[in-house]
From TrEMBL:
SUPFAM superfamilies: P-loop containing nucleoside triphosphate hydrolases. Residues 5-237 form the ABC transporter domain. Belongs to the ABC transporter superfamily. InterPro entries: AAA+_ATPase, ABC_transporter-like_ATP-bd, ABC_transporter-like_CS, BCAA_Transport_ATP-bd_LivF, P-loop_NTPase. One of its GO terms (molecular function) is ATP hydrolysis activity. This is ABC transporter ATP-binding protein. Gene3D superfamilies: P-loop containing nucleotide triphosphate hydrolases. It comes from Prosthecodimorpha staleyi.
Amino acid sequence: MSAMLEVADLHVGYGKVEAVRGVSLTLDKGRIVTVIGPNGAGKTTLLGAAMGLLPSRGVLRFEGADLHELGVEDRVERGFCLVPERRELFGEMTVGDNLILGAYSRRKDGAFVKSALDGVFDRFPRLAERRRQRADTLSGGERQMLAIGRALMAGPRLLLLDEPSLGLAPLIVRDILRIVATLRDAGVSILLVEQNARAALETADYGYVLETGEIALHGAASDLLNDPRVMATYLGGATE
Ligand SMILES: Nc1ncnc2c1ncn2[C@@H]1O[C@H](COP(=O)(O)OP(=O)(O)OP(=O)(O)O)[C@@H](O)[C@H]1O
């Protein structure tokens, strides 16, 4: 089976500074692949290149098609959707209106928008309860749910998630990542970038460790959770 997303020897830089240096990874359809690593390792940069927000060189293919030939909108059309690290919600708009913006590319198809909205509200009852509330009145966890919900409004096939656990309490992180796992079970493929290595590896099928722009280690997520190097550096020294 060929990979849904194939990245090989990818280089991404800001001017002369190379932030991603020869990264290779693959993501098979219906899987959660996580990229873990410390602050500044290049995780966000990697997602930016995959989404087409940053120029890159190397192999970048989606279902066999060369992504370098596709702009951001083409990638969205093919089913890419990025949930950015800062969530980037419109605070003064209601929860419902933020969600509807997520279906912007299909805004003229009222039946699609309604059914997508119903789908998000089924998945996130908390957002349904707060649909008329301003987004800036939500808690951190609810904002992350809204950011993911807005991405789902576009009907994604590949979700790029940038640090969904950022700033959230451990119990909320668990809730959010449980939802991420249900999305995978519903057929959405997921590239999950995280600093919270344990939570990410407990959720993902496969993991890559990114250090200063290079893949230091990769393997089945369950193996990485028990890898002494990962344990020592990213999991606080021991498994629970
Ligand atoms: N706009 C930019 N201009 C110049 N350098 C940048 C820019 N954005 C990121 N960098 C640099 O690229 C490197 C990788 O940053 P990146 O944000 O991709 O890391 P990260 O692993 O996502 O870290 P974090 O968890 O802090 O977001 C860092 O050295 C960072 O300082």
